[in-house]
Amino acid sequence: MATVQTQKALLLHAEGGKYSVGDAPVPRPGPKDVLVKVEAAALNPIDWKIAIPPFSGLIQEYPFITGTDGAGVVIEVGAEVTSLKEGDKIVFQGWFSNPLATLQQFCVVPAEITALIPDNISLDQAASVPLGLATVVLALYNQHPGYPKTLRYKPVWEEGGSTEFAGKPAFIIGGASSVGQYAIQIAKLAGFSPIIVTASLHNTELLTSLGATHIVDRSLEPDAILAKLPELTGGKPLEFVYDAISLPETMPLAYQALAPGGGLVITLSDVIPATLKDEGDRKQIAYVFGNVHAPENRTCGVELYKRLTEWLEKGIIKPNTVEVLPGGLAGAPEGLERLENNKVSGKKLIVRPQETA
C-alpha cells in the first residue's frame, strides 16, 4: 500500500463552490490509526451545507474532502493498534479534515472509534450507521463535564440505563429521517413506550419494524399533532422529545409537546420563539454535534463503538435502507442535490468510492 500515493476523492475547491472528483494524496496512519480502503460512504446533509456559511467555518483547507460515514477494509495498522488487523471490515465515522474524510478511496481513522462489521450487515448498510446513530447517542448519553449539549441520561450500557425510562412515552419528529430511525431504536433500547413519531404514512411499516408504536402524519398542522398526543401517550407527560428535523417549523412543535422538566434534543441551532419559553417550565434543550471525533464527544464515542458490533449482529440497531448511487464518487454531487432539495425519504444514499472511474 505504501507505493500508492494518489487516489480519487470528492473535492470542494472553494467556499460556495461545487464538488468534483479529482486526485488527492493517500493519507498515512498515525500510531493509533488504521488506513482504510473505503468501500462505501454515505451522503449526509452536512456534506452540502459545509460548502457554504456558517458550516464552511469547519473547513481547515482547500481543496476540501467531505464525508462523515464510512465502511471499508483495513489495509494498514498503526504501530500501537492491537484491536484491528489488515483485512478487517470496519464501520466508522469521518471528520472535517481531509485525511479523515470518507468520500475518498482511502482514509485514516483512530482505531478506538471503529467497530467490526458483523456478517449479517453489508458494507453499504454499515455506512448508513455512524453519523445518524452518533447524533442520537451523544445527545442522550454524553457525560463530558461542563458540556451543555447533552441530556446526560444514564447510558443504556450502564446498569439501569435500559429501565430508567421504562413505560414513559417518547415523541420523535422526523421518524423516517436517518437520525429519526436511530432515535426510534435507541428509544426502544432505553425502554421508552409508547414511541410516537411523525412521518409520511407510507413509511409506517418501516418505522414500526424499528420500534415506533404510533405514526402521526407529518403533513398535519402542528396544532392537530399536539391535540393527538395526550390520547397516544395515555395521558402521561412527554418527558422526552427528539426533533430529528430541527427546522423553524418543527422546533416550536417539539418544545410545546414537551412536558415541564423534560428533555428536548435538536440537531440544528435553537430557533424556538422566545414567546414559547418560560424559565419556570424547566425544559432542557440539548443541541447535539453528532460526531465522535470531537474532543468533547470522544469518550462517549469510544463506549458506543465498543458495543456497535454486537448491536448490529443482534439486530438491536438496524441500518437504514440504502440506495447505492452509480458511478462511485462521481454520483455524489447529484445525490447531494437530492438531499438539498428534500428528495430523499426513508433511506440513505451510498456511494462506492472504489467504483470511481
Automatic annotation (TrEMBL):
CDD domains: enoyl_reductase_like (cd08249)
InterPro entries in the cross-refs: ADH-like_C (IPR013149), ADH-like_N (IPR013154), ER (IPR020843), GroES-like_sf (IPR011032), NAD(P)-bd_dom_sf (IPR036291), Trans-enoyl_RdTase-like (IPR047122)
Pfam families attached to this UniProt entry: ADH_N, ADH_zinc_N
GO molecular function, one term: oxidoreductase activity, acting on NAD(P)H
Domain Enoyl reductase (ER): 16-350
Cited SUPFAM superfamilies: GroES-like, NAD(P)-binding Rossmann-fold domains
Gene3D superfamilies named among the record's database cross-references: Medium-chain alcohol dehydrogenases, catalytic domain (3.90.180.10), NAD(P)-binding Rossmann-like Domain (3.40.50.720)
Annotated signal sequence range: none
UniProt-recorded name of the protein: Zinc-type alcohol dehydrogenase-like protein C2E1P3.01
Originating species: Trametes pubescens
Lineage: Eukaryota, Fungi, Dikarya, Basidiomycota, Agaricomycotina
